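Progress against Task 2.4 (sequence-to-structure conversion) is shown through the following example record, which the project officer requested during the mid-term review.
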Amino acid sequence: MPAADSQPTLETARLILRPFTRADAPFVQLYAGAYEIAEMTANIPHPYPDGAAEEWIDTHAPTWQRGDGVTFAIVLRATNELLGAISLTLYPKHRRAEMGYWLGVPFWNQGYMTEAARAVLQFAFETLQLNRVYASHLTRNPASGRVMQKSGMTYEGILRQHMMHGDRAQDLAYYGILANEWRKELA
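Structure tokens generated for the chain above:
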């Protein structure tokens, strides 16, 4: 499904969404390694192990080239500072993707993630020609749900005790948006 061998870069008014490089690893470990991030995400460990950021970054290019997904570094245009990450896990056979993201704590509540999510949705529907994008969040993290809503996604329901986070069963709230809904949002 990739449109090119090398992953594209997306731009918004305030952000650049680009491929990660190994030079980003210390910032990934710093920001993703914060307790607040691990507590509100399904797959980010705390403490964040040394070397894990490099290993994670090394998976991005092969994942894109196989057509299994795309991960963007969210960078502030004005300062070139890494803020977080946003990704799509692709399911080409079904023309759908699951969106996931995290944002460093110092950058919360400034609209950055909604701006990044809208750019990634545009990429998903216009470039990748997907039919559906969905995302989920732990129900105890309503801020993530607000990002999904502000990005045009529709609440689809809760999967009760769908995953374990530590030793606790957690509910996940699901949101989705279809290509035709995205086009209506643009009109």
